[in-house]
Specification:
- The protein is an alpha/beta fold and 443 residues long.
- The chain is 39% helix and 14% strand.
- It has 15 helices and 15 strands.
- It has helices spanning 12-25, 37-44, 48-60, 111-123, 135-147, 161-172, 187-195, 212-220, 242-252, 291-294, 307-319, 326-337, 343-363, 383-392, 423-433; strands at 64-66, 72-74, 95-96, 155-158, 178-183, 199-206, 209-210, 225-229, 259-263, 283-289, 301-305, 375-379, 395-396, 398-399, 410-414.
- The strands form 4 sheets. Strands 4-11-10-9-8-5-6-7 form an 8-stranded mixed beta sheet, sandwiched between helices. A 3-stranded antiparallel beta sheet has the order 12-15-14, covered by helices on one side. The chain has a two-stranded antiparallel ribbon with strand order 1-2.
- It is globular and about 65 Å long.
Length: 443
């Protein structure tokens, strides 16, 4: 029993389903401790081994986590919990710098592109059995990949970057496999990996991307896949430099059977050059999403990969969704063809705000990171204290725990809703909240 709720079931599958149902309904909240296995076994009249098997199922699916003698508890963001359920509640009058959303003022208008897509649909509606990828979109995507030095490969489409990453991992890995990820890194990626029954292996990073020695250590421990953010890393803003890319590729070439995934989710938001790791091994994929540059509701990502990987992704996609909406494809093709996004201006706007906050913090003795993208990462001694103090001071930031596995505490600040003139006040609040006299370390 947890609170007033009683779990049910006589078999491991039934018990696990009962626990998941309670979490899904919100009766059992994220972070809640589950009953000890022997205690629940007595309550249900089953063997402790049956409860252990149920807990193992939930752990492998990313629903719960076990910390040795401290027992099992619901993960802070279990796969059964909707994303909206773990959002930070921002009281009225508090400035929200926690969302991770782009600046809506920098999103290009979609009216003309959508109208053209609708007119094309009126002339020739898309029907079952037609080619899943629009020829113009594929050509534009491949040309952009070529310009950025991405290895030659077929073009594929998915409904967002995380969708592509899930499909690539599922194409090559099996439950129990290790996946090397950046730490701090993308919380949704951590959740996905656990939800697939895989295990994340953290790699430390700095402003130039994953540290080569950390990558080497992860590979020696048997990781089957490596996921790296090319630029605009969430939450730190790290961007893989030319020198770092050479070092990482050299490490990867000694492990040719490992799957390497490049995530270029900020394509269109930065002028910093792409330094892909793709092609360092036999199996690879590079994916770039339209969500950050054109709006989160434009659910489309283009990808390229080795022939085996993209063949498996395409084949599995045909068995499920079938294809990404041709209306969306035509819309994106129009935006790319007409160069609807002023990339230099967008990049400069985000850079001015990121640099402004980092510089204001430095002037107050606070170290921060924000080389690219729309976020600034601030190492702190105590996340709970810092987030609470900032909320009291009128600022809602994201606790770093959502982005960390083993790395030091921090907070993420999204600068999209701010102007340059907001930075001194925000820097004052952050400096006061984190007690700058106490030493903090990045990574």
């Amino acid at each position: 029993m947890v609170g007033e709720y009683t779990f049910r079931g006589q078999g491991a599958a039934e018990i696990a389903a009962s626990i998941e149902q309670a979490i899904d309904k919100g009766v059992v909240a994220p972070g809640t401790a589950l009953p000890p296995m022997r205690e629940l076994a007595v309550e249900l009249g089953v063997s402790p081994n049956t409860v252990a098997a149920a807990y193992r199922r939930l752990r492998e699916r990313g629903v719960i986590e076990t910390a040795g003698r401290r027992g099992s508890r619901v993960r802070p963001r279990p796969v059964t919990t909707a994303r909206d359920a773990v959002r930070l509640e921002v009281p009225p009058g508090v400035r929200d710098v926690s969302s991770g959303n782009p600046d809506t003022a920098l999103l290009p208008p979609l009216g003309e592109a959508l109208a053209e897509a609708a007119a094309r649909h009126a002339r020739q509606p898309t029907l079952y059995g037609e080619e899943p990828i629009d020829e113009e979109l594929s050509r534009l995507a491949r040309a952009a990949f070529d310009a950025d030095g991405v290895p030659d490969g077929p073009v594929g489409l998915t409904s967002g970057a995380l969708d592509a990453i899930e499909r690539a991992l599922s194409a090559h890995l099996r439950p129990g496999d290790l996946v090397a990820v950046e730490d701090p890194g993308w919380g949704s990626l951590f959740d996905l990996i656990l939800g697939l029954g895989l295990h994340p292996k953290p790699m430390g990073i700095d402003d130039e991307g994953p540290l080569p020695n950390e990558l080497e250590a992860a590979l020696r421990q048997g990781v089957r896949a490596v996921i790296a953010t090319s630029r605009g890393q969430n939450p730190t803003g790290a961007t893989i430099s030319a020198e770092r890319a050479l070092e990482l590729r050299a490490v990867l070439r000694n492990h040719p059977h490992v799957l390497v995934i490049d995530d270029d989710h900020v394509y269109g938001l930065t002028e910093l050059p792409l330094r892909p790791l793709a092609g360092s091994t036999e199996r690879w994929m590079l994916v770039r999403s339209t969500a950050k540059a054109y709006g989160p509701d434009l659910r489309l990502a283009v990808l390229t990969a080795d022939a085996v990987t993209i063949g498996r992704i395409r084949g599995r996609y045909r068995l499920g969704p079938g294809w990404v909406s041709q209306l969306l494809q035509h819309t994106v093709a129009h935006l790319w063809r007409t160069q609807a996004l002023d990339i230099p201006a967008v990049s400069a706007s985000y850079a001015a705000r990121r640099d402004g906050l980092v510089e204001e913090l430095a002037a107050r003795g606070v170290v921060a990171r924000g080389r690219s993208g729309m976020n600034v990462w601030v190492p702190v001694p105590d996340e709970t204290w810092s987030v609470t103090r900032l909320m009291q001071g009128g600022w809602a930031v994201t606790p770093g725990a959502r982005f960390r596995l083993k790395s030091a505490p921090g907070i993420r600040v999204t600068i999209s809703t701010l102007a340059v003139h907001d930075m001194p006040a925000l820097a004052d609040a952050i400096a006061a909240a984190i007690r700058p006299g106490r030493a903090v370390r990045f990574g």
